[in-house]
Amino acid sequence: MADNQQPVPAEVGRNVRALCKRTWWVFLLSGIAAVVFGILAFINPGIALAVLAIYFAAWVLVDGVVNIVGAIQHRDKDGWVFILLIGILGAVVGAYALFNPPVSMVAFLYVVSFMAIFLGITLIALGRKVREMVESEWLLYLTGALSILFGILIAFQPASAAKSVVWMIATWAIIIGLLRIFFAFFVRNLKEDVGERISGDTV
């Protein structure tokens, strides 16, 4: 029975490789789209911020609708009314922000501000916990402090910090896009018998 179960991991790996090879163009197109977005964001950060804000508003709207549907479908469960109210609030706020881009842009920046501050606090707390085990915990303190300062800057000076936020996202998009393009050509050039050789070696 052990012999029959042994090839399963190799078979799974072979199926995953086959799927990646057949859909390599998906990785390529998504990578190109990410790189193009990153470049355009550097060229015109204002438009990029508007696009990100609209996407954020749409996400809040969809999340609210999903919560509403989930609450209604589970009316027999305790707390469904609370989920319903959260969903209604999310749907209303998302819809309002979606049709009012300036509002969604400000909301998006404040969310980024909160995330930066929260990340900074987490890094400082982590530094306190590992200070007895590592000698470079000051890097965590420094990174956390900079993250908190960045979040505070966004909260109190959203207009001046908006361009920095867009540039950070643009840099991330370009890096991720290039990695996806590289991965697309890598899986495209995989040989058909790679999975068979691996399976044969493990049997």
Q: Helical stretch count?
A: 9
* Oligomerization status of the protein chains: single chain
Structural class: mainly alpha
Tell me the span between the first and last alpha carbons: 13 Å
Largest beta-sheet characterization? none
Low-confidence stretches: 194-203
Q: Report the strand count.
A: 0
What do these coordinates show?
With 203 residues, this protein is mainly α. It has a domain of 139 residues. Helix content is 87%, strand content 0%. The chain has nine helices and no strands. The longest helix is centred in the C-terminal third of the chain and has 31 residues. The radius of gyration is 23 Å and the shape is globular. The C terminus is likely disordered.
Question: What layout of secondary structure does this protein have?
Answer:
Elements: H1 2-5, H2 8-22, H3 24-43, H4 45-73, H5 80-98, H6 101-130, H7 137-156, H8 158-188, H9 194-202
Summed up:
This protein is mainly alpha-helical. 87% of the residues lie in helices and 0% in strands. The two termini are 13 Å apart.
What characteristics describe this protein?
203 residues; mainly alpha; disordered C terminus
